[in-house]
Prior knowledge:
Blueprint: H1 4-20, E1 30-34, E2 43-46, E3 54-55, H2 68-81, H3 96-108, E4 113-117, H4 120-131, E5 136-141, H5 146-154, E6 162-165, H6 170-178, E7 186-192, H7 204-211, E8 222-227, H8 241-246, E9 252-256, E10 266-270, H9 272-281, H10 283-286, H11 293-306, H12 309-331, E11 335-336, E12 343-347, H13 351-363, E13 366-367, E14 369-371, E15 382-386, H14 393-404
Parallel strand pairs: 3-13, 5-6, 5-7, 7-8, 8-9
Antiparallel strand pairs: 1-2, 4-10, 9-10, 11-12, 12-15, 14-15
Helix pairs in contact: 2-11, 3-11, 4-5, 4-9, 6-7, 12-14
Amino acid sequence: MSLEKLNRSLVQEVEALKAEGRAKAPERIIVGYLPPRNGRGPRYQLRGSNLEFLRMNSNSYLSLSNHPELIKAADEATHRFGVGPGAVRFIDGTFSYHAELEERIARFVNKPAAKIFNSAYTANLAVALTINNAGTYWIGDELNHNCIIRAMRISNVPRENRAIYKHNNMEELKNCLNNIPPGMERIVVIFDGIFSMRGDCAPLNEIVKLTEPLTERFKEGVITVVDDSHGIGAYGDSGRGTEEFTGAKADVLVGTFGKAFGVNGGFIAGSEELIEAVRQKADTYIYTNPLSVADCAAAIKAIEIAGGAEGRERLRHLKARTGQFRNGLAALGRESIPGPHPVVPLLVRDTARTRQLVQHLFQKGILVIGLTFPVVPRGDETIRFQINAAHTESDIDEVLEALSGFKA
C-alpha cells in the first residue's frame, strides 16, 4: 500500500488553504525560558533567533506555569504514581489526584460537582454528547468557539434544532427563544463567557433574565451553558470569571486548567446528576485516558494559589497591567474593543498593515498573533494582545513604545 495518491491530494488541499490565506504559518519552537529579572518579566528564546522574546500571546493569565509550588506538586505526584495513568477512568485509571481536582474545582466555581477532561475542547464535546437528544433545541452566539460548533456536529444536532443569534444581541436571543419550533422539550442556550479574539464578555445576567421565565414552558426547561475558559481565574473580583463579573449563574460551566491556572486539562461543573450523566454517556470521557497525576497535582496547587492571597495579588497586578496597556493604546490613538479582560484586541482593519505590524513587533522581540482576512471579515483585521500577571510595568511600556514606532 502507498500514500502517494493521497499525498498528492493532500498537498493540493493545503495549497488551496494557502491560496485562500487560511494556512497556518510554520510553528515557532521555544527552546529557552529566561526567568523574570531586573524589573522585567520572563523572556523566551526561539530556535533560529538570537532575540529574547516577550510573549504577548499566552493564555497563562496568572503566570503560574513556572511557579515553583506547581512544579514541586507535579514532581511529587509523578514520583508517587508515575507519568501516566495506564488506563481510562473506568478501568482503574482514576487516582486520588483526579478525584481531588474534581472536588477542588467544583468548590472554586461554586457548583455541586465537576468532571475533568484532557481539555476544555473535549469537555464541550462531552456536554453536547450528554444532553443532546431528539427533543433538544440549541441556541448559540454567532462568535462561539470552534469547540462548541464542533460539539453540535459530533452530537448530530440537526439544522432545524438549532439557532444562532448575533453576537451578544439580546433582542436576537429573545427572538430565537420566542421562535422555538413545536415539539422541543429541552432548550440549551450556549455561549462563551469571554470571546477569545475580542476580550468582551457575554451578558450572562441578561441571558439569565431572558431564559429563566421560560423554563416552565418546556418539559425539561431552559438550560444555560457557558464556556468560561478564558474567564475563570482571569477576571472578576476573586477570579471567578464571567459569573462573578456579571453577578449571575449559568446552569452548566465549562472551563480549563490550561489558561489562567497555567497547567493542562478542562472541566464541566454543574449538578451532581449532570456530572453522573457525563460520566456514563460522554465518549470523550469514557474512551480516553485521563490527565496525568502531575497535571492534576499542579492544577490543584494552582487553584489553591488562585483562591488565596497570592492569587488576589496576581489578579490585582494583572488588572493594573491590563489597564496600563488599554490606556496606552488609547493615548496612541489606537482602536480597541472595551472590556475588563486581559485579552486586548488592537483593531488594525487592514490585512497588509496587520502582517507588517506583527513582523515589526517580532523584530522588536515581541510575540503576538495577527488575525487577517479571510480568517476574519475584511475590515476586522486585528492583533490580539494577552496580558499576563508576570508582565511588568516596563514590559507594557516596551510594547507601547514598539507600537508607537510603527509607521507603515
